[in-house]
Each structure stands twice: as C-alpha cells, then as structure tokens.
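Folded chain entry —
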Amino acid sequence: MPVRAALVTGLVVTTLLTATAARVAAQPAPPPDEASRAEARKIGYAGVEAYQAGDFAIARDRLETAYQLLRVPSLGLWSARALAKLGKLVEAEARYLEVIRLPTSVGDEAIQEQARQDARNERAELSRRIPSVLVRVDGAPAGEVAVTIDGAPLASSVGENQLVNPGRHRIEGIRGTARAQAEIVVAEGERKDALLRFSGAAADGPPPGGADAALAVQRPSPSGASSTMRTVGWATLVAGGAGLAVGAVTGVLAISKKGALDDAGCMNGGCPPDQRGAVDSYQSMRLISGVGLIAGAVLAGAGTYLLLTAPPANAGGVDHATASRRSRGALSRVRLAIVPGGTMISGEF
C-alpha cells in the first residue's frame, strides 16, 4: 500500500512539472532590451557595408549575428541576400520565407513591411535559380534505402526533386551492407537525375562477391570521349596536312626562284637593282615554307597522337586502362620525321 501511494504521488508530481514546463515553453521570448537592439543594429550596419563592398562572406557572418540578436525583417532580408551571393540558394530561400512570416515587433512598421515585400519579390526570383536533383534507385526497393546528399538526409522522399545549391554533390544510398554512390554537378536552374544502382544484394548480409560487389559505380561511357577525340584528331591532322602542303609548295617555288637569282648573280652580292623585288619574294617564300612545314608537322603529330590514343568506340569488354596501354604501345611504334619538302610518318599502326 505505501508503495502504491508513492507511485501515485510520483505520477502527480511528474504531471505537474510537465504542465509547468509546457506553459513556460509556450510563453513568447521576452523582447530584446535596448542594448541588444543597439548592438544588433551596429553589427547589421557593418554587414550591409561589407555586402556593398563585395565581401559577401563577412557580410553573411555579421548579418547572421545581427539577425539572431534582433529578428526583424530588415536584417533578415540582408542576411538572405548575402547567402544568395555566396551560392547558398537553398538557405537564402528559407531565410526569405522567414522574413515574409516575421511579425513587426520593433522598429518602423513601414520599413519592416517594405522589407517583407522585397523578400517576397526576391524569393520569387531566387526560386527559379535553385537547381534540383531527382534521386532514383535501381536494384533495390527505394523504401529500404537510406539516401543522403553531401552527408545530409534527403529533405523529401526518393523520386521527388531535391533542392540543392549549385555545384558538386555526392549522393550515397545505404541498404544493409550494400552501398551505391553517385556524384553530380549542377548549375543554377538546372534539373538533373542521380541514379543509385544496387546489385540486388540482400539487406541482411553482404552479396556473394563481398560488400564491394554491392557498390555500383557509374562510369562515363567511353564512346562520347572517343568520338570527340577522333573528330579533333582528324581535324588537327587535316590542318597539319594543309600546313605541310603550303610549306612544300612554297619551298619548291623558293628553290626555283633561287635558281633564277643565282643565274642573275644575286646570291653572290652582285644583284641588279631590278631583281630586288625577286629577292624579297624569295625571302618571303622561304619564311612561309619554313613556318608551314614546322606548324604542319606539329599539327600532324598532335592529330596522330589523338587518333592513336582515343579509346575504341566498340571496345566491348576492354576497360579504359587496357585500351590506354594499347594506345601508348601503338604510339611508341610511330615516328614523325621532317624531310626536305615535307614530313614523313612511319611505323606500325
């Protein structure tokens, strides 16, 4: 009986304490005193000055401090602007929303209402700049996968657009011992998909091939890179061939003109005045020929290198490292030589 009475007494005391705590929590926080308001305004002015000077990191820190001391729409508005300038678009949008919902507790009502209106307009403009990522899961039930973006849990469910800041993001999914990862880069206003591909491993144990077999790494297809490298390689090789052709033709013409100038005695210092133009023409041809041959040789060599090192478009089961080793082996057997009147490429392809 005494034990039962003690239990009842304890329950009554606990109930009273809980109710008292709830009433205390429900009471609004006391408004900041005049000293706190003055300090918040001082820090806020410094933050606005830093913002206008283009130092947005310092502006963000000072305006955040001021806003936490004095939660008024005007300070929150400038804080949101600083966050947006630093690329923190998601955080800026949330701050704009806070400003819109803030009541006016201190300060000029007209100024605070204008700040709320500015926040509405700027938030509408900012929302169009915020990129998003649609995370999809393959090889596992989406409801069984814990997904994070940059280490933070998703703000909504898998299969829904997740608002993110511009830049690079790491997406990771965990199901038991299985993991899947993806990395994406998004620009302002861009919408991208991120696929987490699982190998179908059970959630209660590692797959037959070990935990690493559960991680599906998505690598870019070599076909696009191969096509680009081959296109650039052929274009460079053609440009090199054109340079060699120009150099060779002008070289032949220069040799022919030199023969005529030799007959006129211009190469021995006794050139007649009427042959000065021919001498200048010969010198120009020599210069053009030399530049054409050298530039053509360089471009032809670069084009050959790109063509030989481009990953095969139909590599099938050959991985990129193997294809690269084969390309380097093929390149080591190729020689580019400059010969009189042109260049010569020799070796085994």
Q: What stands out?
A: Strands lie at 132-138, 146-149, 152-153, 161-163, 167-175, 178-186, 191-197, 334-339, 342-347. Residues 222-263 form the longest helix (42 residues). The chain has nine helices and nine strands. The longest strand covers residues 167-175.
